[in-house]
Every structure is written in structure tokens, then in C-alpha cells.
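Subject: Interface between my chains keeps coming out wrong

I've been trying for a while to get a sensible model of this assembly. When I model each chain on its own everything looks fine, but I need the whole thing in one frame so I can look at the contacts. Pasting all components below, labels as-is. Any help appreciated, I'm running out of ideas.
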Amino acid sequence: MAKIKKLDYDELISVRKELVLEKEENKKLATELITARKELIFQKEEKGKRAIELGIANIELAFQDKEKGKRAAELIIANYARGLIEASRDPLFTISPQGKITDMNEATVKVTGAAREKLIGANFIDYFTEPDKACKGYQQVFTEGFVADYPLTMKDHKLTDVLFNGSVYKDDRGNVLGAVVVARDITEQKRIEKELTEAKVFAELATEIAEEAKIKAECAAHVAEDAVKSKQQFLSNMSHEIRTPMNAIIGFTKVVLKTELTSKQKEYLTAIKMSGDALIVLINDILDLAKVDAGKMTFVQTPFKMALSLSAMLHLFETKIQEKNLLLIKEYDSRIPEVLVGDPVRLHQIILNLVSNAVKFTTHGKITVNVRLHSEDAETVTLKFAVTDTGIGIPPNKIEKIFENFQQATSGTSRLYGGTGLGLAIVKQLVEPQGGSIHVKSKVDEGSTFSFILPFQKTKANAEAVEELVELDTEIKNIKILVVEDIALNQLLMKTLLDDFGFERDIAANGKIAIEKLQTKLYDIILMDLQMPEMNGFEATQYIRNIMKSNIPIIALTADVTTVDLAKCKAVGMNDYIAKPVDERLLYSKIIGLVKKPTPLKMLKNNDSQSGSNKKTKCINLDYLLHRTKSNPTLMMEMILLYLEQTPPLITTMKRSLHDKNWDVLHAAVHKMIPSFSIMGIHPDFENMAKRVQEYASSQQETEAIADLVIQLENICAQACEELEEEFNIIKTNTIN
Ligand code: ADP
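Reply #2:
Try treating it as a single job with all components included. I did that and got this:
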């Protein structure tokens, strides 16, 4: 057992030792464990630290990222802004509140010609021509926040006009950082504006000039018009001066030619008359030409009887044609309406010219005047007139020329045949403006045909005052004519002519005297010269028609048919006109036509066809007188004569007292007149009228109505006088027979 025990001890020791070792080992391990544990804690701590650091780093990273994003966005904005700035072609600046340039675009660089570096920090106002104004402008941006369309001129090399627009920009807290200003280049607008202004100024100037020119033109036109007027007046006066003695020469030559003469005397006088005629034609031509030149050729539209008118024209050539032993043939188309509307005076002139040429240039053979219906529609008829002669003809190379002023076919024409070469030029001017045309066909030594086509209006109207040429009727004696004419020679000529007709005539040297005569004596007709001293023919006619209210026929005696305004004659109330030198048959016809006093013989002749269509219904009825006088012709005649003597002065007194408003005299005159109405069988209406005049005159009421009544009384008395004169003559003739 001890042995076991020793073993066990050793073992135990060894175990103990081992245990101590183990313990030591454990201790070591424990220390190591602690150290390891410590290490672990430290490691842990370190790890925590690292994690925090990582977190921070992450945060930092995130922040960095954000910042980076921000920077990128800022960069985009900045790029965008720059893009915007640069996109503007107008100079654009940013300026600081101190007025320093902080940025600008390329356009600014270009305009100012200064480098970007130089511009930055420079004074904004230094770049404008008016720095003060520029200063105010940019200050306004900062005080008001903006400025719009502020005009400035940039101090660039070409002084660009700009409109300055600006607005401030602020930071996120609203602090003003600066201003953006755009200087809009308005050079183009300015140029346009300038051009417009210039254009306006020019236009105004042009208008002014035009107006001045217009005034000048008007002045010139007035001067020209005055010149034309004075030219026409001069021509008119001159022609009057020339024609007056010429008319007397021709007129008296005609008168002398009618007396007994030796053949030599007749020859000489014929030569005088021919020269006179030629001179009158020349004067008329020159006057017509002046009228054409002045554009004053006018055409009337009046109804007239074509065939009659033509016969009257051709009648004027009868003597000449007979003298030259020529034959005048008239061919007239019966389809032509009797009355047409046109200008008979101008037609007269045209035919006169053509026929007188035909007569002039023809020594043997015939002259044919042919008028035919060319065409017709509902309103118009176009007639073709042709004047054919068997005369000398016109060479083909001259035919075009003859319608020009002063052109004659040969240089010898004037010497051989006279003339001025104006006639055809005037004819053309008379035909074409009326819508017609003129042609000529001619063969030398065979003859010529001048033809013209003229349109006329159709009408249903009756042609008034187209008198047929009446043969001189010595039975017609009782026509009283007042000749109003200032020139002694013409007075004498008229006297001679009217004496030849067997008419009674008085002469008044001017319109005033004529009116005086009209107030004291009854006339059947007035022959009125136009140009007279004191009161001319127009004034006198106006007075007769408007003041005297008389309808007495008036024929104008005019030396100047071509220039005197015939319309004026008509306008003042003249019934007709007659050209000087007076064609006596025409004068006679016109007087008879207007006075309408056919002889009893004529009336008998016309009775069946016209049944007295020209005759007025009689205003007198002699039944009472026949009864009272028991048809005693002598007594009848005495009574009629008494009426004829008393009435005209009573009418004159009646009119004068009315004019003078002398009511008592008027009353007395009408009072004396009243019984004669019933004696002469005048309608009781007129007696009543006379009584009304009496009444109004004594009460001096309705004095306006008196004038009208007086005119009616005057007319009826005048008619009664006319009729009684006729009756007187009939009774007288019957008594003698
Ligand atoms: P005038 O007859 O005054 O010379 P016109 O103008 O009437 O002027 O005529 C011009 C010219 O035409 C005449 O000079 C003449 O040579 C020519 N002439 C006109 N009519 C005829 C005609 N019937 N026969 C021949 N020649 C004519």
C-alpha cells in the first residue's frame, strides 16, 4: 500500500505540478483572454469609430453630391443665362448699382468696339453720347426697378441710336444686385422714321410745290383764259368793226344792184359785192378758228326740219350758181324723218363751206348735193351728205393735207380762186366733235365729192320756227317793226330793206331808246342788234321780257353767228337771230314767220290744208258794233279807229303808272278802257280783270297781282288792236271796191 501510496503521491505531485502548470496555463490563458477581450473591446470600439467615420464620410459624400448637383444646375442656369444674353443681338449689359458694367454680351463688345475686359468695371454712362441722360436712365432702373424705351445714343463708331430698357435683378433675399439693361438698336427704325419724316416733309414740300404750281397754273390758266377771252373779245370787236362797214358795203351794193344800172356798173358792183362776201367769209373763218382753238366750239341740240333747212342753205347759192352757169342738183332721200334734233347752224356752216368750195372750184358742169339715210335705229338717224362737183379736182398727194389749217391743194389756188385754206379745217372741226366723219374722193380735172356722215336724234317734237322762205308779198303792209341798231349805216340799210318789204319801221339807236319807244307805241316785232352802247341787245331783251313782261317777238341781228353765243340770245328770251349781212328773203321769212300775219289772200290759199292753224282764235267780236252802227262801214271804221288811237296810249299809261306806283293814274287809265271791252266784243273776263285792277288800284291792295292783270290786259288789247286793224283794212278795201 505504501508503494501505491508513493506512486499516488508522485502522481499527485505530478498531477499537482501539472495542475499548477495547468493553472498557470489557465492563468496565462485567462490573461490572454482578458487581453484578447480587451483587444476585442478595443476592436469593437475601433469598429464603432470606423462606422461613425463612415457615416460622416457618407454624409460628406452625399453633401458633396448635392453640392455637385447644385453646381451643375448653376452651371446650366449660368449657361442658359449666357445663352439668353448672347442671343440678344442688341447690346446687353449688367450694371452694378454704382453704374459699373459687370457683364455684357458679344453685341455690346461689337457695338462699343471695346474688349470685354475693358468693359467690365467701366462706367456704363461713358458709353453714351449724353452721359447725364444715361445716368438718369440707369438711376431710374434702380429707383423704379425698371426703365422702358429710354432713348439714348451709344458712343460707338457710328453713334447708334438705342432705346434703353432695363430691369433690376435681386438675390434670393430680395437685395438688388444689379440691373440688366438692353440697348435696342433703333437705327433702322430711326432711319425709317427719318425717311418717313423726310418723306413727309418732302410730301408736304411737294404738296406745297404742287399747290404753288396749281396756283401758278390757275393763274396761268386765268391769264390764258383772259388772253383767250381778250383774244376772242378782240376778234369779236375787230370783226364787228370790220363787218359793220362790210355789211353796209354788201347791203348797199345789193340795194344799188337792184336799181337800174349800166352793164359796166353792174359788173363793178358785183365785183364789190363778191369781194365783200369773200371778206365776210374770211372773218367768219378766223373767228371760228379762234373758237376751235379756245375749245369753245359748242353744239346745240334743237329740233329742226332738215329738208327745209337744206333748201334755205342752197337758196343762198342760187345766184352764184346761175352766174357761173352751173347746175345745182338736190337729191334728198324721202325716208329721212321731217324733224330731227341737231345743230342746224353748224350744219349750215358745213354745207355752206362745201358747196361754196364746189362752186368756187367748178367752172362748168353741175354741183350735186345728195342727202340720204345712211343708217337708223330707234333713237337716231345717221345721214350721209355728199357734195359732188365737176370741177378741177384735187391731186392725190394733196388730198390728206386739205383738212389742215391754211392748206390749199396748190400754191396757185389762193391766187386763182382766193380763199385761205381754213374752210375745210373748220368743217372737220364741226363734223367730228358731233360724232361724224368727213371724206373726200377726187380726180384731177374730173371733180370732187366731199361727203360727211352725221348722226341726228329722232324726235316727235315739232320743229319750231323753221320758216319756209316766204316769197315777198306786197299785200302784207301792216307790220310795225322796231329796229334797234346803233350804227347809222346799218340803220339806213334796214330802213331800205324794210321799206322794200313795205313794213312800217322805227329806229332806236340803243336798247334804252327802244324800251322808251315800246312804252309809247305798239310794235309787232323787234329787230335787235346785240352790241350797242348804253344798253345792249341782251340787256334790252331781258328788260322787255322780265320787267315789261312783253312777249313781242325779237330777232337778234348778229354779225357774229359763229362766236356770239346763240344760246345766250335764246336764254334772254330772243325768238330767233339773223346773221349780218342780212339775207333779205331770210329776214322777210323770219319776220313773217314770227309775226304770223298772213294776208287774207294767203289765208284763203292755206285754208283747206291748214285751216288757219297759224291763226290765233279771235279775241274780238264785232256783232255789237255792227248792231249799234247798223252795219254802217264808215261808222264802224270810225269806232275802230277811235279804239286803235286810244288804246295804245292807255296801255302805255297803264303800264307806266303801274311801274311808278301811281295808283290814281292807273285807276283812271283802266277806267277809260273798260267800256271798250264790251263794244269790241272782248270776253267779259277781261272787263272783270280791268275792274279788279281798278279796285286794287283804289284800295292799293294786292298790288302784286295788278302786274299780272296788267300784262293780260296789255296782251288782249294788243291782240284786239291787231285784229281790229285787219278788220279796218278789210272794211276799207270792201268799201273802196
Ligand atoms: P379755201 O377754199 O379757203 O382755200 P378750204 O379749206 O376750204 O380752203 O380748202 C382747202 C383746199 O382744198 C382748197 O384751197 C383747194 O385747193 C382744195 N379744195 C377744197 N374743195 C375743193 C373742191 N371742191 N374742188 C377742188 N379743190 C378743192
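Reply #3:
Confirming on my end. The CA atoms of residues 22 and 28 lie 9 Å apart.
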